[in-house]
Amino acid sequence: MRGERMLELYDFNNSVCAQKVRMTLAEKGLDWTEREVDLFKLEQYDPKYLAFNPKGVVPTLVHDGTPVIESTLICEYLDDVFPDPPLRPSAPVELSAMRVWSKTVDEGLHAGITAISFSAMFRERMRGMTDEQRAKRWRNIGDPARSDRDRSVYEHGVESPYVYNAIAAYESAFEKLEKTLAHGRSWVMGDAFTIADIVLAPYMARLDYLTLRDVWTGERPGVAAWWERLKERPSFRAQLSGRLTPEMIGPMNRFGAAIRGRVAERRNEHLAELAAARADAA
């Protein structure tokens, strides 16, 4: 590993956003100092942390004392500052195509996995809180849109419209990914492993740990084969799967399995609506 003594990463082990930044750091062969921010203890709202990241989310990269926020931007920042090995295409048209995958994650899959995870696991955890503890959690959200989503999923579980939107977002992404990989590509952008693969990795992994992945990928062999290659990537094994203990994975498996049937039903509802809309447009 080659190091920069002033690289610090404020993260949380099972945060999907932190996982993609750690994978990028590993792909670059960099050393970094890790600072855990325990989301369950609401440490992301500590004033000292908010000075780095006013949104109160993880991760935050601090490089030579300067904070860099937003996980996708951190990944690109690292590729700018430490260009070898490159994790982005050099041709502008291909770089633009890669960034479309980043937007797919940031504008759909991230909110989607948050809603699905909340409906499966965190909803049950919040049910065990006192009214005062829940009120503190809502107050500390900081973002009204996030608060609305979390309240809806807490109250309605899988029946929340936010979960339905998540199911639709994953369907769209996996439909496109299957077409992208259908011509023998090893990775999203071709033969080279890029940030496009990295930003998708934690979202596929979370679905897998929730036992929900094959709801979308069971009939998509290209995506399934990409997933098998991805799991063997050293950066994935070191900074994602290898860092999750049985105590972390067990609840994800258990709570995800409990909503699996209804998630599959709601996906079928979405597919029927999608087919009708496409027929009307034909």
Alpha-beta classification:
alpha+beta
Indicate the CATH topology of the largest domain.
Answer: Glutathione S-transferase Yfyf (Class Pi), Chain A, domain 2
CATH architecture of the largest domain: Up-down Bundle
Query: Strands across the major sheet, in which order?
Result: 2-1-3-4
Contiguous helical run count: 12
Q: Would you mind describing this structure in some detail?
A:
With 282 residues, the chain is an alpha+beta fold. It folds into two domains: 2-81, Glutaredoxin, CATH 3.40.30; 92-281, Glutathione S-transferase Yfyf (Class Pi), Chain A, domain 2 (Up-down Bundle). It has twelve helices and four strands; from the N terminus they run βαβαββαααααααααα. It has helices spanning 16-27, 47-52, 71-81, 92-127, 131-139, 144-156, 161-181, 195-209, 213-217, 221-231, 234-239, 246-281, and strands spanning 2-11, 30-36, 60-63, 66-69. The chain has a four-stranded mixed sheet, with helices on one face. A hairpin with a 2-residue loop joins strand 3 (60-63) and strand 4 (66-69). Helix 1 crosses helix 8 (195-209), helix 4 (92-127) packs across helix 6 (144-156) and helix 4 packs antiparallel against helix 7.
Q: How are the elements arranged and paired?
A:
Elements lengths: L1 E10 L4 H12 L2 E7 L10 H6 L7 E4 L2 E4 L1 H11 L10 H36 L3 H9 L4 H13 L4 H21 L13 H15 L3 H5 L3 H11 L2 H6 L6 H36 L1
Helix pairs in contact: 1-3, 1-8, 4-6, 4-7, 4-8, 4-12, 7-10, 7-12, 8-12
Can I get a quick summary?
By secondary structure, this protein is an alpha+beta fold. It has 2 domains: 2-81, Glutaredoxin (3-Layer(aba) Sandwich); 92-281, Glutathione S-transferase Yfyf (Class Pi), Chain A, domain 2.
